[in-house]
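Hello everyone,

My group is preparing for a crystallization screen and wants a predicted model to guide construct design. The compound we'll soak is adenosine-5'-triphosphate. Before spending weeks at the bench, it would help to have a computed complex in hand. I've included the protein sequence and the ligand's SMILES below. Output in structure-token form would be ideal because that's what our pipeline reads.
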Amino acid sequence: MRTALTIAGSDSSGGAGIQADIKTMMAHHVFGMSAITALTAQNTTGVIDIMEVTPKFLEEELQCIFTDIYPDAVKIGMVSSAELMEVIARNLKKYNAKKIVVDPVMVATSGAKLMEDTAIATLKRTLLPMADLLTPNIPEAEVLAEMEIFTEEDMIAAAQKISEAYGCAVLCKGGHQKNDANDLLYQNGTFRWFRGRRIENPNTHGTGCTLSSAIASNLAKGFSMEESVENAKNYISGALEAMLDLGKGSGPMDHAFRVEGVY
Ligand SMILES: Nc1ncnc2c1ncn2[C@@H]1O[C@H](COP(=O)(O)OP(=O)(O)OP(=O)(O)O)[C@@H](O)[C@H]1O
Ligand SMILES: Cc1ncc(COP(=O)(O)O)c(N)n1
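Reply:
Good plan to model first. Here are the tokens for the complex, ready for your pipeline.
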């Protein structure tokens, strides 16, 4: 069985973070493991508190994972502080981690800040250059490319800038665009659109976490970057189309939509 690791924060309401990642990996028949960077007390309406693990504890989590069940791919999500970013970068290098997908989570859909402003410089210096793929949403791509994004041409320019700066593929996600949900993959100087119609579903909590974990799962199974993005885009569209409706705010997605006879 192929294996994947998520290095991210826990979401007590189960819709984003580690919980979304493990559910996604399981739906892909990939064995999911986790190195938790922080516990969040949150639900579909917002985040009320965050408790980071210590750098020493994160180091121990990574040591336990990499010295036993080696992950075929790694996904990095919420990492709030510069100190934890340093620990992750050092250990991924030490254990020669492969197929690294970085979702540069900065702000939750609900508006809560999940990365300290002072950590952005460390993110750029440590984790971004190690990534095989970066998956910023539009506001994150604006921060990383230091430009505003209004049009599809802007998405291409920003993705190119980020790809050249960090030497990795970039998937600029269009979930925050007004019209269709079109994602742009830029790699090795060429780009390809993964187009999808906007699904009228207010419950989008954890879409970014789910997409990056689906890509990591596909990479773990040996698919190419383009195939992995295509499969993951189909997965997120299916999970949104299942129209699960839980909670009082922006609810989670249905990860069991491909399993027959579950209802
Ligand atoms: N309403 C929608 N209909 C179809 N696809 C969507 C919709 N919203 C988001 N997506 C897709 O979900 C994926 C995540 O995109 P998005 O831009 O929302 O990321 P994000 O902001 O990081 O997610 P999150 O809400 O977890 O922070 C992308 O593939 C995007 O196209
Ligand atoms: C632990 C954790 N990681 C990531 C997100 C971002 O997801 P979203 O933007 O959908 O709230 C989150 N809310 N919580």
